Amino acid sequence: MKTVFVVGAGPAGMFAAQKIAQAGFQVVIFNRDIKPGGLAEYGIYPEKDKMKIGLRKQFAKVLSLPNVHYFGGIAVGAQQKITIDDLRVYKPAAIVFANGAQGYKKLGLPGEDAKGVYSAKDFVYFYNQLPPYSTQDFSCGKKVAIVGMGNVMVDIARWVLQDDPNRVTEELTIVARRGPFEAKFDEKEIKHIDMHMDAKDLLAEMERVKDKVAAVGQDVAHAADIFPLLKHDYVPAKTPRLKFRFLCGPKAIVKGPDGRMSKLVVTENLLVKKGEGTAAKGTDQTAELDIDTLIFAIGDSHDPNFGLPMGPEGYSTKPVDGDERTKYQVVDPQTGVEMSGSFVVGWSRRASDGLVGIARHDAEVGATYVIDYANKANDEFKSTADDIETNLRVKGLRIVNKPQIEKLSKVEEVEAKVRGVAYFKFPDNEAMLRAIENEIPEAVGATSGRD
Ligand SMILES: Cc1cc2nc3c(=O)[nH]c(=O)nc-3n(C[C@H](O)[C@H](O)[C@H](O)COP(=O)(O)OP(=O)(O)OC[C@H]3O[C@@H](n4cnc5c(N)ncnc54)[C@H](O)[C@@H]3O)c2cc1C
User: In sequence order, which ranges of 78-198 are alpha helices (DSSP H)?
Assistant: First the structure.
């Protein structure tokens, strides 16, 4: 049977797999995490239970297709036990790369390695209980800052201000390179946290940047369009306090004697026109903020150690106007020649690009080109999914297959019911594997969601 491999089981991988399987191909999915779902499971905010549960059901439906096989706990990559070339040895008709954006946008700041400096991705993996992040130290101190002004910032702020069970935070500062009108969060999202903002503080900050934003034709009198709390009567802010500091960019991180960061040095920025939009322009002026925890929420990039060739904007493609297929086709960046049968979809095609619906649409469009390609390819796949599983196990990998994922879901469901919570997750891979291998689920150290 003609077979297509899919690497990654986030929304993009799962919806691509569904479409390809429905077109009559056998699909084999390889996923780094034991469980499918990617950021839908381990990124979306824990309180968004309904959305998460709905997506879990859709992913279970994909896995229930008889011609879909699943191997969880398998990280593919140039530095992993399974490389992309290892997969190519099986001669699948095509490989769809849906491994998301697992690289980091490092700013290269002095002191970036201090304790208390985190990337948003690792931080959301932590509070969403993805091993191994779930058991690592992502503690927040009294003075926290988040760099970035999108919905991911809002999620993290929500955790820091409201849901962190070990909270000691007194103040959270949002550090924004540009001004209030460049905020990227949705009104619905900011309402989750705006009760922590003091309107007087916010208006004082608007006053501070008023002239700088006026230079590009913006008027802080319209700030209520971005911050709905300014439309209402004054209500004192809840603690911990949430503040915004606009028009400044991180320049250096100062470490305290314990190795944890103690200050953030920022460069004061101007706002200038850039094409249709705006850009931040650094000045010679700097300021020091008392900050002990810093989280970068500035988007992610593709992992350069994965093994796919990198172009200027991530995994290498060469989109040609009017030929949508070329957006999904991996090319050699040196020669521009297509790497036959290699496609990228979802965040693996465009890092940090939009919501689940966008990743799904992207994957389904990409899948149509994969199907076209695979229909024309010779059928050289001579193995079975069982052969692949055996070969992976021989390499010492603890694979989790489809029946085991079903079992894990059932154990988690039972445990959630017993605890009267919306969902239950094991805190580490060992506990998941023990549950799969028939031992009694351990309550100690396990975590549960709110309902
Ligand atoms: C903090 C945060 C909050 C979000 N909240 C929302 C929200 O509320 N609503 C919404 O609609 N969208 C939300 N999104 C966006 C949504 O999560 C993404 O659109 C979507 O998950 C992208 O899907 P993907 O499959 O391309 O990538 P991912 O979801 O990242 O999936 C990648 C998959 O690849 C696997 N993988 C990674 N590396 C390897 C490897 N080397 N080998 C094998 N497998 C690998 C991973 O295990 C994972 O399963 C949020 C995103 C973030 C970061």
Answer: 84-88, 120-127, 151-158, 187-190
